[in-house]
Structure formats: structure tokens, C-alpha cells
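Quick illustration, no need to memorize.
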Amino acid sequence: MTFLKKLFLILIGGQDQKSAATKLYGDVSDEALVAQIVADNNTLMFGVLYDRYAKMVYNKCYGFAKSDDEAEDLTQDVFLMLFVKLASFKGRSKFSTWLYSFTYNFCVNYVNRNKQRKMSDKSVPVEQTEYKLTDDEVSDESVYELKAERLEKALRLIPAEDKSILLLKYQDGASIKELMEVMQLGESAIKMRLKRAKAKLLEEYNTITDG
């Protein structure tokens, strides 16, 4: 077991500790938990925060990962860094929105600093395809109607950043405003990224046969 793995397990505590912490702090708001964790490095409270958001963070990490194991490792790394950087949360947005942004930026940096994992977009630019898109040609309804098995395969074939924004939008139900906060981009840039990500997804989806 690596040092980081041991540190992570210490931070979130064992099952008995987590159960006790949930009884003590289960009704405490995110913001109050964060304030107390920052004040005295309360690892029991951090375990409560972990339980509340581990699934959400894992889902974001999975958008950048090549496997379940890598997504789990990324999730642990995010929470380790979160413990260190928690004081940077200033309460200007909901904690969940801030954590979305924190996780997204962590994963983007992870992909970009790992040269072997760095992903390049080799697909033909949307503007050069013969079915040049208008804003409504890849509708939200058409995305929801894609077959699950082919969709999962197609998601593996598109760049991580595109997969992540699609999962945020269609799996987690993030609004355009929330995506703007998470990705720190303007409305038009978010809409363009969604448009291109949907086009790339559909392009890959149409190359996959059932069975």
C-alpha cells in the first residue's frame, strides 16, 4: 500500500469512525463542515464530506479515466488535494458547485501533465464535415435516445474533456450556468463546447455496430 493510499484511508477513517461521524455531523451543512475542517483539521468531519460527495467526484474522474481503477485513484487524489486546499473555498457558490470545478480542473491538469496520457483530438473539425451543424441539429433528445451499449463505447473514443462536459450535462444534469462556473468559461464558449462534443460523440456512435 502506497503512502498516499494510507494517508487517504486515515483521512476518511474506518467504517466504525465513519458511522460515528455520520451520527454526529450528518445534519451539519457543507459550509459548516468545511469551516470546522479548515479550523482544526477535523478528519472525522472530512470523512462525512467524503461520503456526501465521493460518488459525484468519482463520476467526474471517470470522464477523464481509462478504467475504473484509474478513476478510483483519481478520486482519492482529488480528496487528498481537497483536504489541503479546502481553505480556498470562500462560499461564493454552493460547495457542490465549487467541488465540481475543483475536480474538473484537477482532472484536466492530470491529463495535461501526463504526456503519455495527454489526449489529442484527431477528428475532422466539425466545420469541415459534410453535415455542417446548426445549433439544433444534434438535439438533447437525440442524445438521450442513443443506445446505452453503443453510447458507452462511443464515450471511450472521444477526448476526455468532451466526455466530461457531456457527463456533466446529461448524466448529472448540470445547467449552462453551472457549467460556466465549473469550467470558468463564458456562456457562448460552453454552448460551443457542448455542440462540438455532441457532434464528436454522434460521429463515433455512428461508426459502432450493435453486437
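Residues 8 and 76 are 7 Å apart (CA to CA).
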